[in-house]
Amino acid sequence: MKSSYIAFSCQSRIVGLVWGAVLVALLSAAPGLSSSGLAAEPEGSAPAPSTWGIQIDALDLDAMANSGLDLVVIDTPVHDERQELSTTDVLRLKERLPSVLCYLNIAQADRNQAYGLDWTAETVDLAVRADPEDRAFLDVEFWRKSWRAIVSERVRRIMDMGFDGVYLDAPELWSRHLDRRPGAREDMIDLILYLADETRRRNSRGMVILEDPEDLLKEPEVMDAIDGASMFACMIDPAGKSVAQDVRQRNEDLLDGVLEAGKLALTIEFPRNGEDFRSVADWARERGYLFCAVDESFATLPRSLGAAQE
Q1: Is residue 170 predicted with pLDDT exceeding 60?
Q2: Which one, 56, 65, 147, 164, has least CB within 10 Å?
């Protein structure tokens, strides 16, 4: 996912035996609950979500607050003065929404945010190169101490603003550095664990969601450190085309593993019409996933199942 897109989305109501089993697994895994999963939740914790949405740019606070979603992901430029959200804004959202997470790209820098650095200076302790897919973003050597300091400070500020947790994007980009950093995969795992720990230092119930973690989920310590994972385009891609069967199967296997671990399994899809929407909704419901539906412009308002059927 690119941090420049605008999106927040619809819902997949997870009902019946499938979601019931997932919910029990989630409750059973939560600290302080009985093994039956039926004990009361700790004071202040949000119930397991059944809908989610995301809006990375140009946040409409009123629309998001009235979205009725259980879990939302938004961004805030916490290192410069552009449209920076206030703690009051975050609290306003939390008055209406159970869980509000903040987006954070952990492997790339946005040219529009300063991060306290001069990107043109040769002395910066980060070797950067433009993302081949979007030159507004810079791939960084995320294993550097200077980058860890930047993202850990962002996590601290995010949590101090009152967010319920972080949504960590781009962990899969470790693979771009293998040519000069053979241990890049292990470096990324270490960074994820470090940021998860920083999140929960600020809030012991802080949520950590990874987007497109791919094979990193095979590592038990990564799965233990997160509350869920999100996959990008499991069924329908940004062009509105069906995803290849082998890609879909790979993503389903990853999300099924997330569910088996008692975590949230999220997906972002791109249905172009009501038929596609219903197909994705049925698929997500049957498998126990929560899906978020957007279009290729990432500028849609939430759509309900009823609206898609009109």
Answers
A1: yes
A2: 65
- Please state, in angstroms and rounded to a whole number, the distance separating the CA atoms of residues 262 and 52: 17
pTM of model > 0.85: no
Residues 199 and 206: beta-carbon distance below 8 Å: yes
Rounded to 5 degrees, what are φ and ψ at 52?
A: -150, 160
Classify the C-alpha dihedral 69-70-75-78 as positive or negative.
positive
Mean pLDDT for the chain?
Answer: 79
* Whole-number pLDDT of residue 86: 87
In terms of residue numbers, what domain contains 153? 16-28+49-302
- Report angle CA 275, 281, 287 to the nearest 5 degrees: 135
Which of 73-82, 202-211, 273-282 is the most confident on average?
202-211
157 in any annotated domain:
yes
CATH code assigned at 284: 3.20.20.70
> Can you read off the two tokens belonging to residue 37?
């999963």
Under a CB-based contact definition with an 8 Å cutoff, are residues 255 and 231 in contact? yes
Q: Give the integer Cα–Cα distance in Å for 300 and 7.
A: 6
Q: Measuring CA to CA, which residue among 34, 35, 30 is closest to residue 45?
A: 30
- DSSP code per residue over 102-152: EEEESSEEETT--TT--TT-TT-SS-EEEETTEEEEEEE-TTSHHHHHHHH
